[in-house]
Amino acid sequence: MLPIIDFADFRTGDTECRLRVARDIGRALSQIGFFYVRGHGIAETTMQRARAAAEGFFAQPVAEKRKVRRQAGRYRGYIPPIPFVTENAAAGRPPILYEAFLAGADVAPDDAIVATTKGLIAPTPWPGKPAGFRSGITAYWDAVDGLARDLLGAFALSLDGPEDALLTHFKQPLTNLSLLHYPARPKANAETDGAADDAAAHYDTNAVTIVMPGVVGGLEVKRRDGRWFDAEPLPDCFIVNIGNMMECWSGGKYRSTMHRVHPPLGVDRFSIAHFAVPDYETVVRPLPGHAEEAGRRAAIAAGPELAAFVARFDDAPRE
């Protein structure tokens, strides 16, 4: 099982308590790069509203969802079902499909940041249905974004830096919220499905990911010995992992860990993931005192890194 971090003492405790929690987090990040977090301070009602909003949106007819389809080059809006990893089809196995709705911090259409970030920050095309969707997702965004900033402070302390060492790069961040739906796969696929290919595995490219899983599992994490294990949903817990940017900031002390989504057959899977990404112009380099290890990436340009990721949606086949 992943380590479980009680974050309550970091949020409300004294300096000694906060440092203890930071050290516990640092230990988890150096060992596996994933952990559960409880005591996060996000109300269950806020989480329930967000879950209901997401499931209600994806339950709508395709034509309704396509009204808010994302535009090329912009990382906001609806993404129709696409293969999670196309290599699965080439391997002779049915691909794992998902659809998504991507949201972010509110910004005016004429805000200069839209042009500066080449559309990576842009207005979210909020749907008119279901009722309460925007308010439910916005309330969750505000809460989980605050948690992400607190975690970034804890990460910095765990690396013996000032608490704002990372937050200085999150003034107008490229952070986004992804509502994810993996449609149920027919149980008839069981004979050809097998275990998920390593081709379906990936590293997150961002700094930190906070996942509110649904009741259905399917997230698998790769251990250092090469074996995979399930990161099952736990009550009142988020699943947190770091991406390549946090690994780079730590000089390789903390490791971005390979993981994959392989939902059970015959059931729909939902999750909501918050991806913390620094400002567009940020070039991520090891923090002072944390020189990069040989063979690790010495620098990551945040804007181009996210732009390259978004481009794969532009390249995906369109109906």
Structural commentary:
- This protein is an alpha+beta fold and 319 residues long.
- The chain has a single domain, classed as B-lactam Antibiotic, Isopenicillin N Synthase, Chain (Jelly Rolls), CATH 2.60.120.330.
- The protein has 10 helices and 13 strands.
- The chain has helices spanning 8-12, 15-31, 44-58, 62-65, 87-90, 112-116, 133-158, 190-193, 244-249, 302-315, and strands spanning 4-6, 34-38, 77-83, 97-103, 176-182, 208-213, 219-222, 228-230, 238-242, 259-261, 269-276, 283-284, 300-301.
- An 8-stranded mixed sheet has the order 1-2-9-6-11-5-4-3. A 3-stranded antiparallel sheet has the order 8-7-10, with no helix packed on it. A two-stranded antiparallel ribbon has the order 12-13.
- Strand 7 and strand 8 (228-230) form a beta hairpin.
- Helix 2 crosses helix 7 and helix 3 (44-58) packs across helix 7.
- The longest helix is centred in the middle third of the chain and has 26 residues, at 133-158.
- It is globular, with a radius of gyration of 19 Å.
- The termini are far apart.
- Residues 86-91 have low confidence and may be disordered.
